[in-house]
Amino acid sequence: MEYILENDKLKATFRNKSAELISLIRKADNTELMWNGDPKYWGWSSPILFPFVGAVKNGEYRYQDTTYKIRQHGFARNQELSVISHSDDRITFLLEQSEETKKLYPFDFHLEISYELEDNTLSVCWKVVNPSENKMYFSIGAHPAFMCPLKDGEKQWDGYLCFPDAEGDALAYKLIDLSKNCIAPELHELPLEGRKAHITEHMFDNDALIIENRQAGMLGLAGSDGQPYVMLTFDAPLFGIWSPAGKNAPFICLEPWYGRSDAVDFNGTLENREYEQCLDGGQSFETSYQITVCS
Question: pLDDT, tens digit, for every residue of 153-198?
């Protein structure tokens, strides 16, 4: 089933699977901002990443002397979430543990994903509740795919990544070691000019650019004119930037993360994973990020 939030600036469409944003239209010129999920390139538009972001080493993790197998990005993106409230400008989806999720992830949880539309901004809100008496470990992240290029006649690498609040003339990033599907330790440099980085044809040949340590809290896309057409604002400790390698796909994913893949040298348990989130019994975690559509 599809659900709509709409005002005089934007029309946003969602589905139950993954509580996914599947369309975001700028009504002034009827421009679609979201990738349409064509599996020729990538069969999603904006899946939720929970309770893992990225991959665990060797496809498995250990917790309290038990080993669990889990696929990349966890299981929430393949789940049908229920709608617990829906108004003209806000919708909230819910996912809780089940017998099937317990085979992959041993925790009880209550996950709410809300979207709120105001003017030219869509806020994406996450609430994770630990209903048990024991500690709960998790990661959560976004994976929205925005059209790039946006204008006919341009190529992806005619455009720019925008970092309005970045400091300095470069950002440091890491890459995935594709032979191990884990993060390599080497740091690479993304040059900035005027707080923008030019997109290059081979930028994503080694998968996502992983930018850690809160180097920016705003991230957007611009066409060849350098003017941003979509901007994300967030408080996440790290984020990824991704497009499928070698496919010249017409979209780029801008991904605020609270968690990430294991490093190639990681040998610890779930509690030891870098950027892992932890909730004591009865506690909750709440955060949000904003998608602003520029004129």
Answer: 999 999 999 999 999 999 999 999 999 999 999 999 999 999 999 9
Its pTM stands at: 0.97
Find the angle CA(144)-CA(162)-CA(50) to the nearest 5 degrees.
25
Measured in whole angstroms, the distance separating CA 74 from the mean position of its chain's CA atoms is: 13
Task: Quickly tell me which residue has 């990538």 as its tokens.
Answer: 42
Token pair listed for 155: 């190529």
CA distances from 152 to 148, 184, 197, 200, 227 (A): 10, 37, 21, 18, 16
Pull the structure tokens for residue 249: 């796909």
Q: What is the pLDDT of residues 238-252, one digit of tens each?
A: 999 999 998 789 999
Q: Are 293 and 33 in contact (CB under 8 A)?
A: yes
Phi first, then psi, for residue 120 (nearest 5°) are -105, 25
Average pLDDT over every residue of 263-276: 97
* Distance separating alpha carbons of residues 168 and 191, to the nearest angstrom: 9
- The mean pLDDT of 253-277, rounded to a whole number, is 97
Distance, in Å, from the CA atom of 115 to the CA atom of 117, rounded to the nearest integer, reads 7
Name the residue type at position 279: L
Question: Which of 149, 147, 122, 127 is CA-nearest to residue 138?
Answer: 127
The residues near 250 (Cβ < 8 Å, ≥ 6 apart) are 35, 41, 147, 148, 149, 156
